[in-house]
Specification:
Elements (H helix, E strand, L loop, with lengths): L4 E8 L5 E10 L2 E11 L2 H10 L6 H26 L7 E14 L6 E5 L2 H8 L3 E3 L2 H6 L8 H9 L5 E6 L2 E7 L5 E8 L2 H10 L9 H4 L5 H8 L2 H4 L13 H7 L8 H18 L8 E5 L6 H11 L3 E4 L10 H14 L7 H4 L9 E3 L8
Parallel strand pairs: 1-4, 4-6, 7-10, 10-11
Antiparallel strand pairs: 1-2, 2-3, 4-5, 6-12, 7-8, 8-9
Helix pairs in contact: 1-2, 2-3, 6-11, 8-11, 11-12
């Protein structure tokens, strides 16, 4: 019987709240998470990353140190999870590091995407071969470099046309299968990013725990319809976006003329924007079950609204498929590292729009420790 191989998956998403780390066991077509852990960013580093994620002055000189700091945090997270699992670096075939996205511009005249967290340092500090820079090869092949997780969703969850997945991080992305079994995947629009920003501006909290603050407000249908009129929501898939598009600037521009609305009303309306933009792209699918992962799975009001809007589809979490909703994306990048190390394609052209399947990422080999 062939031996299982262990991969570390690392990601910090568009919410920029923590590094998610998992150890993924890959045995043939079977994948299992054997350890998981989240390492929060410091408030100072999170603020620096968020600042760098928007256009500003002196970006290259600011990027350099942050690139190193993120790499050091990723390496520490990898070593921490390996120790927690009672393994050693020698037990790990490779680290799959998504890094931290600071720009994603798939629709510009010269499309590009940029994730930082220097993989050279991760390989050097851990002594483990590291695979990184997954998105740019897909983009070079004419794709949007996103979403990359649908291929993992299908492999890990055995999806068919009756079951789908939506990851609600900063941005929400949906994975579906059509009647012929072909995979579809795309970003439906904002997930938590606008709600998190609005919460931080008007409360002492960085996010609206369980949607409790939103419950104190009411949906403003005029504001909601104004937000939904943005052309992104009506555009055809494959498509991807990011917090660079659905940004604080976008939100404040959209809210001009609505300044008198109570902050809780805006928060409730932003939650409804996320729910309805997801429902709009899934309600007409032949689904019996939609599984939610990412931070949005913990927002009770958001889950209630999705259930109500999508009845009779059963809205649940990816726990129903065997993976806790907090760890799906990190697991995906461990799986993508496995694909890269075995010279296997990692993208899904029907989801990203690429010209074809491609082996993703660059490999940064580990070296033995230098002699004393």
């Amino acid at each position: 019987m062939s031996q299982a191989h262990h991969f570390v998956g690392l990601i910090s998403g568009t919410s920029v709240d923590a590094i998610d780390a998992v150890i993924l066991s890959v045995h043939g077509e079977e994948v299992d998470i054997i350890a998981s852990h989240a390492v929060p960013y410091s408030a100072a580093l999170r603020a620096d990353i968020l600042s760098l994620s928007q256009p500003g002055d002196n970006e290259i000189d600011r990027l350099g140190p942050i690139d190193r700091q993120i790499a050091d945090h990723f390496a520490s997270a990898a070593l921490n999870i390996i120790q927690r699992a009672n393994l050693t670096p020698e037990d790990i075939s490779a680290i799959g590091s998504h890094g931290q996205t600071i720009r994603h511009r798939p629709n510009s005249d010269q499309p590009f995407t940029l994730q930082i967290g220097d993989p050279n340092r991760i390989a050097e500090l851990t002594g483990i071969t590291t695979v990184a820079d997954f998105r740019r090869r897909d983009m070079a092949a004419g794709g949007q470099g996103a979403p990359l997780v649908p291929a993992f969703h299908r492999a890990a969850f055995r999806l068919d046309q009756s079951s789908g997945v939506v990851n609600i991080g900063g941005i929400a992305n949906v994975t579906l299968c059509d009647k012929q079994g072909a995979l579809r995947g795309f970003d439906s629009g904002p997930g938590n990013t606008l709600m998190d920003y609005w919460t931080a501006q008007h409360t002492p909290q960085s996010y609206d725990n369980n949607g409790d603050w939103a419950r104190t407000g009411a949906i403003d249908d005029t504001v909601l319809q104004h937000l939904l009129a943005d052309p992104y929501f009506a555009s055809a898939d494959p498509k991807s976006t990011g917090p660079e598009y659905f940004s604080p600037t976008w939100l404040m521009t959209q809210l001009k003329g609505f300044e008198a609305r109570p902050p809780a009303t805006i928060q409730r309306t932003l939650l409804e924007l996320t729910a309805r933009s997801i429902a709009a792209v899934t309600i007409d699918e032949p689904l019996t079950q939609l599984a939610v992962c990412g931070g949005g799975a913990h927002n009770g009001l958001l889950m209630e609204r999705l259930s109500a809007l999508l009845t009779p589809i059963n809205v649940t979490t990816t726990d129903a498929y065997g993976i806790h909703p907090d760890w799906v994306e990190a697991a995906a990048f461990g799986w993508l590292a496995h694909r890269t190390m075995n010279n296997l394609a990692g993208n899904e052209p029907s989801a990203t729009g690429a010209e074809g399947y491609r082996v993703l990422g660059a490999i940064y080999p580990a070296y033995p420790a230098y002699p004393a």
